[in-house]
Amino acid sequence: MTSSEEYKRQIMRDLAGGNVESLDNFSDDSTTEYENFDDFAQRTTPDQRRQLFSRSVTPERIPTSQMEPELQKAIAQIKPNERDDVARAFFKHFKSRGLDDRHLEQQLGLSTRNPNRMNADDVSRLASFAYHNHPDIFREVLAEQPGIIKFFSNPIVAGLIGIAAAKWLGGRK
């Protein structure tokens, strides 16, 4: 096992166990501990995850050169039905900004605009477009569809997201 894989696993173990030091002054009486990332993703609300990602997942903190390959790998690994949900979420948020799916299909060179028939490359293009041009939409979709995060393998990307989670979870312990 490479050191970056071990580093990622340690971050996820720390997050799951709540074994973190609080760096924020957020207080809550909750003593929730999570068994693993899936448990965290299932038991936290989108609002809690939105708060977690609000400052940490931005192009200023995680360079595009590191985020784009991670998105491609992560989206390729999620289940097809989850990938459909991610695509639907992106389209929903883009539509609320006045960007229609036909325009996005042409602009991004997507094979289809139907989320049920999109491949991993299409969803990666949507995610990259959001990350570059609408980071708030990107964070919103991550909050709604957190399954993508568990497949990030770059230690820097996983670490920055892990640090944000540690701050949030540490304040909740």
Describe the structure.
The protein is mainly α and 173 residues long. α1 (3-17) packs parallel to α9. The chain has one domain (3-172). The chain is 64% helix and 0% strand. Mean pLDDT is 76; it is low at 20-31. It is built from nine helices and no strands.
Short description:
By secondary structure, the chain is an all-alpha fold. It contains nine helices and no strands.
**Rg from Cα:** 16 Å
Mean pLDDT: 76
- What is the count of distinct domains? 1
Q: How much of the polypeptide forms β-strand, as a percent range? A: under 5%
Give the uncertain stretches in residue-range form. Answer: 20-31
End-to-end gap: 31 Å
* SS summary, helix count: 9
Q: How would a textbook summarize the main sheet? A: none
Order of helices and strands: HHHHHHHHH
Shape: globular
Would you count the extended β strands for me? 0
Helix content: 55-70%
Structural class: mainly alpha
